[in-house]
Amino acid sequence: MRRRISLPLKLFFIVFAFVLSCIVLISQLSYRYVQKEIRANDIFYTNQILDKVDQYFTVNFSSFQTILFSVETSLKANIDNPEVIKKQLRELYELNSNYVSNIYLIKNDLSILGGSTPTRIFDEPLSEREPLFEAADKNRRTTFVSNPYKSKYSGWTVTMVRYLNGAPFPMAIAVDLDLNAMEETLFKINKQEQMNLALITASGKIIAGFSENKGPLNNQDHTFSIGETSAEQILDTTETSFQLHTKDGIPVTLLKKPMEKFNWTIISINDESRLKAALSRLETYYFELLAAGLLLSLFISFFIAKYIRTPLYALKTKMKRVEQGILTTTITINRNDEFGDLSRAFDRMLQQIVELIRRVELHNELERKLEIQVLQSQINPHFLYNTLGSISNVIRLGQIEKVDVVIGSLISLLEYGIEDASEKVTLHQELRNVSDYIEIQNIRYNRNFQLIEHIEAGLLDFPVFRMLLQPLVENSIFHGYNGGGIEGPITIHAYREGGIVIIEVVDQGEGIPANKIKHILESEPSDVEAKRKRIGLKNIHGRIRLHYGEQFGLQIISIPKEITRVRALFPAGLYKGDA
């Protein structure tokens, strides 16, 4: 047989699964939300860094412009004194050597007056200066910024050049930027912020930046690509933030920002290492939260299951004892909830069952006593003795014609009386039995007790108890007519009134005092009645009430010296087939 799982255990698993699922779901949603927020904050933070880098180079651009204007002003004042110009160039270079590789004048023959030590010595014309001089000559009112190139004396550099207006012969002022210094600055930012920044020209050339650990980059000849996407393609897109994949399929996030002063672009490539580090710490917390959730789920599930199990098992124990027949079992559940209500209702039900059983036992015992009393009275020795004595008197007086009447009535009474007392009979059968009884009493007392019947149509077949009317008629003769001392009519009525059938026996004898009427249906039979084994009115009253309810039974209405009515009340619904 398949083993049944108990309700508390089922409840434990259900609550455990529900609570743990909620915790996992909330944790997962929280994790995803925090992951999204970290990613968004990372992009925001990176954009902030890009803005700071842009501001830094904007300030540098202004510084370089200031250098150019300073040289221009100084040269105009000392154009005829080369030594003073050389000295001023050297001082300006030494003052700004952290940011520039050289400060110099380019003459129209491409020779120079340089501020750095090598160019003070080697000032011969170089062809690399020709594009710079031509650009300055074409844009005499603005500052020209070159693309990065390899300079003989300044190395990998970018030159800012400005034409010297008002000079006696064509010349330009040039400043070579120290890209290595710029790159070192970007490397510091990359290291501190775990970023990968670089300055890119409009043609995709790397001016400075990108850490030594290039990661997703493919560097070739100062340019780069990410996977299948080249630097030119990256710069051509209008988006400032997008995702790319390396040749190994690793996703990277790229952010770019055009610089305000230079025609350059700041690019940040994030391979999510910083994000992964943050998420790694978050995952540790996430698993700790899951472990705590697991323990919390177990605790809550155990607590709820125990909260249900204790009263449930108490009720189960109580029911098992009741099943074993122990109706007086008491297991108190002192709780102000549904289990407490159920326990108290169960206790009340047990009390009602015990009370009902007690009442049924009393009912059965009372019914048994009443039926035994009827059986005992059915063959009444005293009545039989009197009847036989009456027959003897009739014969002695020579009234032979009455003998057959008495014997016939006695035989009918005896045959009727030995039947089952619990069996119901029709009202017609009871009337016939009462008629035989009156015949005997008339001869016995030498009186004329006239029997009058007023029966409503259809009630002759109404079912009644066996020996219902004889005790009522006997009561009329014995009490109403002083035991045959006086004579008078005995009238039997049967009629319907509402939902009740009323059968009443009426005599016009002595009557019953009002103070005794209510005691007749409640008191025990007297010793005389017990010896005579009569069926008392209380017996009739009790039998009717036992069978049909408290609202039915006998009613006694009496006016002393005038009339007495004894009514038997039955439910009218008995008429259909109950007999």
TrEMBL record:
GO terms for molecular function: ATP binding; phosphorelay sensor kinase activity. It is a multi-pass membrane protein. The lineage of its organism: Bacteria, Bacillati, Bacillota, Bacilli, Bacillales. It is found in: Cell membrane. Keywords: ATP-binding, Cell membrane, Kinase, Membrane, Nucleotide-binding, Phosphoprotein, Transferase, Transmembrane, Transmembrane helix, Two-component regulatory system. Residues 306-358 form the HAMP domain. It comes from Paenibacillus selenitireducens. This is Two-component sensor histidine kinase. Coiled coil: none annotated. PROSITE patterns: HAMP (PS50885), PROKAR_LIPOPROTEIN (PS51257).
